[in-house]
Design a protein that fits this description.
two-stranded antiparallel sheet, 54% helix, 2 domains, single chain, 7 helices, mainly alpha, Arc Repressor Mutant, subunit A
Length: 158
């Protein structure tokens, strides 16, 4: 069976297109900020990386406030890994922030969990967000200012 050069050329173009699509998808997955990776709380937008334990617990509790939810749904809505979910659900059930139904295998946030979320929201309103740090290249060098290197008593007497 002979394969014509046109078919080989077509297959090469097809394969290079697939490879290009894979590279583009990888770049998008790496650098694009997905809307579900950004959480809006108390008027501030937070990137979900490096969240504190309190923030992760609040996300998990918020995921099951309206109805009974499966672990998978909570995990996807709270944007946590499976190991994080297991750890935080165990703590939440132990502290009675969530309840677990053994008959259905579902979780729901309790009244104590809703109170936790209300207090968490109050903290977000009270605490200011940290602004971006200034560029250190544009900060003046204070070691070049002579009056700062003088002893304090000389500065007070002058």
């Amino acid at each position: 069976m002979k394969i014509s050069l046109d078919i080989i050329h077509f297959l090469i173009i097809l394969m290079s297109g697939i490879i290009l699509h894979v590279v583009v998808l990888f770049c998008l997955m790496t650098f694009y900020v997905y809307p579900e990776d950004v959480e809006k709380e108390g008027g501030a937008i937070y990137r979900l990386k490096n969240r504190s334990d309190i923030e992760v617990m609040a996300s998990i509790l918020r995921s099951a406030t309206k109805s009974w939810e499966y672990k998978t749904t909570i995990m996807n809505n709270a944007v946590v890994s499976h190991s994080q979910l297991i750890r935080y659900l165990a703590i939440a059930v132990e502290k009675e922030l969530m309840e677990y139904s053994e008959t259905t295998g579902l979780y729901r946030t309790t009244a104590a969990g809703v109170k936790y979320l209300a207090k968490y929201e109050q903290l977000l309103v009270l605490l200011p967000t940290i602004p971006d740090l200034p560029d250190l290249d544009n900060v003046p060098d204070v070691s070049k200012q002579d009056h700062l290197n003088e002893p304090i008593k000389d500065r007070l007497l002058s």
